[in-house]
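I need you to check the entry underneath: sequence plus fold tokens. Let me know what the token row says about the fold.

>
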Amino acid sequence: MTSPENLANSQDLKRFWCECAWIGGEVKTKVLIEVAAGRISSITCGVKPRPADAEKLSGLTVPGLANVHSHAFHRALRGRTQVESGTFWTWRERMYEAAAHLDPDSYRELATAVFAEMALAGVTAVGEFHYLHHSPKGGLYHDPNAMGHAMAEAAEAAGIRLTLLDTCYLAGGFDTELNEVQRRFSDGDAGRWAERVEALHKAYAGSESVRIGAAIHSVRAVPVDQLSPVVAFAAGNEMPLHVHLSEQRAENDACLARHHKTPTELLHAHGALGPRTTAVHATHLSQMDIDLLGTSGTAVCMCPTTERDLADGIGPAHAVHLAGSPVNLGSDSHAVIDLFEEARAVELDERLRTERRGHWLASELLEAATGAGQASLGWDSAGRLEVGALADFTTIALDTVRLAGVQPAHAAESVIFAATAADVRHVVVGGRFTVRDHRHALVEDVPGRLKAAIGAIFK
């Protein structure tokens, strides 16, 4: 595979003719996009007939989708946790069982298949919230970043961009030791975590396909005296900083009991909020929390399919949006991988909560799935169809059983409220097809790869 940073060495100029394209918040028709060196070099609307040398993209073409929050190994749990009741905390025990079986080779295989599934769903960039750092017993691999490199290799094989959010994870809870499985997540303290991540950051300096970011797993997993060093490291390296926030009421209660602050207030006190930060879930927030997130410009990543699967609750997405937080989307535990489902759930869950329709425009939800998500992952030049942007785009077929009869004027609304991942026809990353006519161009037999990789974990 030619990775995105080497695209300039391939055939330099490519042309794509879109039946419809979402540009500047509006649907345009008969759009010619020219690409040079992996970036959009020109856009012309109303071009007819299609130039003979232009690839035809039938359907609605939008900027590439960004899956802002992923734990690739959670994909192995799909279906396995649906035979029991319980809570997030009982589900977590099944998750630990899967984590205990992974090494660099098996994780590379699984992540390649999972990232390929994401590509088939229209995703061009993923944020991998990565904390499987060391061996199952907690020891260092010969290369302490072997697991991180496995993630980068998997993303390249699957043809999507990766922001590896290397996660600091040091405790089992407030004043609680790590358990046996969690030991592999920990570097011991924030200083040693930073030393390891610095080496990873240098390894991918200048890459156009991989970004290294930082993450605080949660305020329960990073002791209060270790928060500021992580924040300072991320800021000093101009990295995205992500954090699980208030996913569970129990976390809020424990934080208040231990620190007399909500998790949001605690992060604010240690300088963790701001435009480079993304709070994931943010399900159980006070009004003060919402105001702190909004006024600081902290982004919020909603993962509705996971939040409902784990019975976490409905987060205040619209309230944080109105307060000033950019909202983006993630598939998290991969109960399903479908960014259209995530996007419409933000609106539909709000309708269920309020018994009222029309909180979000389709264009706002499409922006959450594209531009806002790409920005959260550090891909500031992706997420929009304009000259100079990375040539990453996704085409949704409008002639499927779900979307047949859609008119261009309502294409965005129809896609957000009716499309599924199965309607993705093409995916282009850096001007090259990763998915073409519903088939992955780089990974053969994605279902077979998933079956084999998951079977190896639970053999």
